[in-house]
Amino acid sequence: MTDPPRWTQPPRWTQPPRWKGTRRVLFTGGTILAQGVRIPAANASVGDEPQQSAMLVDGHLIAWIGSDEDAHRHHSSAHEHLELDGAVITPGFVDAHVHATSTGLTLAGLDLTRANSLTEALALIEAAARSARGAPILGHGWDETRWAEGRPPTSGEVDRASWGSLVYLSRIDVHSAVISSALLAEVPRARELDGYGADGLVSRAAHHAYREVALRLIGAAQQERAHREARIRAASLGIVALHEMAGPAISSADDLRGLMRLSD
């Protein structure tokens, strides 16, 4: 067993931190990827910069980054010590293309990515209809290319599974959707729109028109719940900033204002 390396000069990030937070947590035993800082190889020799493997967080601020060898100086001032066991800590991620309402509705609503067949999809729709008790049903994620049937459900099949509810089901790529007969009737002169399908499959201009109607039907409370679900999911994945890609055919001005209010 070799002795820990001794650095010829103290690195610039080993200065004592200034305590400004309410809780201090010391992380050791990992790899810290700090923006603009080179991470030396594990076999760095004396005279090289030390491996960044430890970090001290003071409330919501990073107070210090350095090596495990230097971390002992902060044990006594930390409220908690977490061993990373080789895990990597990175700066927060940024998602540059988000539709918060649609994302939140998918997270909290009918997830058809789980369906491995048309039959399974219809069973999931029926279960969602039982829970909705007559409320509009918005789902996402069906992919007919993975199904033995090789086709999406028709509006008639959706009607039977949902007992005639207002239903909007976007495809996995969100460029088309299957809708119920009740929702088909919500757009006057829909048959004149590009992408209209009498069997309930809509794309292009028709899809945009029906998506606008579907999002208007959910109400302010469900909309806010969707926004919160999207933010919580993003935070759980280490995403610290979301760029909402709002637009007339995607959400609405009120939808965007509601999302921004959560950030106030």
Topology summary:
Layout: E1 24-28, E2 31-32, E3 54-58, E4 61-66, H1 68-71, E5 80-83, E6 88-89, E7 93-98, H2 100-108, E8 110-111, H3 118-132, E9 137-142, H4 155-162, E10 167-171, E11 176-179, H5 181-184, E12 201-203, H6 204-217, H7 219-236, E13 239-244, H8 253-261
Distance between the termini: 54 Å
The total of helices stands at 8
Architecture per CATH nomenclature, i.e. the level-2 architecture of the largest domain = Roll
The strand line-up of the biggest sheet is: 8-9-10-11-12
The counted number of beta strands is 13
User: How much of the sequence is in beta strands?
Assistant: 15-25%
* CATH top-level class of the largest domain: Alpha Beta
**Cα-based radius of gyration, to the nearest Å:** 26 Å
Give me the oligomer status: single chain
Count of the domains: 2
By CATH, the topology of the largest domain is Diaminopimelate Epimerase, Chain A, domain 1
**What proportion of the residues is helical, as a percent range?**
25-40%
- Return residue spans where pLDDT drops below 50 for at least 5 consecutive residues: 1-17, 41-46
What this model shows, in words?
This protein has 264 residues and is α/β, with parallel strands linked by helices. The protein folds into two domains: 12-91, Urease, subunit C, domain 1 (Roll), CATH 2.30.40.10; 98-219, Diaminopimelate Epimerase, Chain A, domain 1 (Roll). It has helices spanning 68-71, 100-108, 118-132, 155-162, 181-184, 204-217, 219-236, 253-261; strands spanning 24-28, 31-32, 54-58, 61-66, 80-83, 88-89, 93-98, 110-111, 137-142, 167-171, 176-179, 201-203, 239-244. The strands form four sheets. It has a five-stranded mixed sheet, with helices on both faces. A four-stranded mixed sheet has the order 4-3-1-5. A two-stranded parallel ribbon has the order 2-6. Helix 2 (100-108) packs across helix 7 and helix 3 (118-132) packs across helix 4 (155-162).
